[in-house]
Design a protein that fits this description.
alpha/beta; Protein-Tyrosine Phosphatase, Chain A; 9-stranded mixed sheet; two-stranded antiparallel ribbon; 11 helices; 39% helix; globular; protein tyrosine phosphatase activity; PTP_cat
Length: 403
């Protein structure tokens, strides 16, 4: 399962078969506990622990002579992407100094702000944090996110303002967000990072220890959400760029929790990462199916293929998409209950796209004959006949007299 692969279908097959085994044997909690134990063992007992995370340094100032802040830099060489992760902003002046010096283009906030805000809330508001002035120049409110455009100025050098975008996720409450709601926020983030010039240039000039033009991933509700976002965004970049990788979510979590113990802090966050990755692959593959009505032991509901939390059959706990995948691999010896097989067959038959009924294309000889007929007609009568474009043009006898 750790061999490197690429391609949406191959990744989807690997993750789906693994999830089937995990759900069938109820191994979610056992696997999560094993992830925490392995990360702790590597962190405390390994001679050469991973060195993928380092503190972000800023210019020393009065009261901060060591030049340290609460931000940490984490890099992913496979996608040539670096992130600055940050928890609760306790010292806003140091936070904005870090953003200004590192020229961060984005701040992604993964929790609804219930503490003292470190940024202006409304358009036109300006707040001064010691030597750094932050002004909100634009605000866009969506059902799932809020986008604010900031102009950051160092008052000692006002000629070099820094413009950045703040994206606040509204759908992530006390529990893991709904996939349909989170999709809008995640899609918007992907569009922003792929279209931003500074982030594209930073990837071209990527170095592991450089934090310049790195987005800030921030949360007031703990680093668990930050860890979820890092893994989901990393896998999304791998898929979109068709990069060969092992695509082992559990291994990624072990590597992350080795240096960030609070990353992926509970079982629900672990499940959410897996659900969102499968959702992302389905969306990128462009599959769109109808929503069949399925009856299970809990009653009658309408199920969509993208929502892996809704189950086709409560006995084995498989979602629609997982049932389809297992049905396709019946020849490989995968055991599927009779109920799921029947549901899957009906589901696939209703999901097949019907080919449009188009008129048959004319043969090559017919096309040549039509061209010759039109040429003869033009040379004889010196004008185009309205019959020449029809399928019966070749049957016209031009030697006969037409009155």
């Amino acid at each position: 399962m750790n061999n490197t692969i690429r391609g949406l279908e191959n990744v989807l097959e690997r993750l789906t078969l693994k999830r089937n085994k995990v759900e069938k044997n109820v191994l979610w909690r056992s696997i999560f506990e094993e992830i925490e134990q392995r990360a702790e063992k590597i962190r405390n007992h390994s001679d050469s622990p991973p060195n993928n995370m380092r503190s972000v340094e800023i210019t020393p100032s009065k009261g901060n002579e060591d030049g340290r802040c609460d931000g940490s830099l984490i890099s992913y060489p496979e996608t040539r992407q670096s992130y600055i992760i940050h928890g609760v902003v306790e010292k806003a002046n140091l936070f904005w100094q870090m953003v200004y010096e590192q020229r961060c283009p984005f701040i992604v906030m993964l929790s609804v702000n219930r503490s003292i805000p470190y940024f202006p809330l409304n358009e036109g508001d300006t707040i001064l944090y010691e030597l750094y002035q932050v002004k909100c120049t634009k605000k866009i409110v969506n059902e799932e996110y809020i986008v604010r455009s900031f102009t950051l100025v160092w008052i000692q050098e006002r000629k070099k303002p820094h413009t950045l975008t703040h994206i606040l996720c509204k759908s992530w409450g006390s529990q893991a967000p709904n996939l349909e709601r989170f999709e809008e926020f995640f899609d918007y983030w992907n569009k922003c990072k792929t279209s931003h010039t500074d982030m594209r240039n930073a990837k071209k000039m990527y170095t592991r220890d450089c934090a310049v033009s790195s987005p800030v991933i921030q949360s007031n509700a703990g680093m668990g959400r930050v860890g979820c976002f890092l893994i989901m965004d990393f896998i999304s970049d791998l898929l979109r760029n068709n990069i060969r990788h092992h695509y082992n979510i559990e291994k990624m979590m072990v590597e992350l929790k080795t240096e960030l113990p609070q990353g992926i802090s509970n079982l629900n966050e672990y499940k959410f990462v897996g659900d969102q990755v499968v959702w992302e692959i389905e969306k990128l593959s462009g599959d769109s199916y109808v929503r069949p009505q399925v009856t299970n032991t809990l009653g009658t509901r309408k199920f969509g293929t993208r929502n892996v939390k809704r189950m086709v059959c409560s006995n084995n706990g498989m979602s629609n998409f997982e049932a389809i995948r297992q049905h396709r691999y019946l020849k490989m010896g995968v055991e599927v209950t009779k109920n799921v097989v029947n549901v899957t067959r009906n589901f696939i038959s209703e999901s097949l796209r019907k080919k449009e009924e188009l008129p048959p294309r004319p043969s090559f000889a017919t096309k040549v004959w039509r061209i010759l007929t039109r040429f003869c007609n033009y040379s004889r009568k010196n004008e185009w006949s309205e019959w020449d474009t029809s399928d019966t043009a070749m049957l016209i006898d031009y030697d006969s007299d037409v009155e």
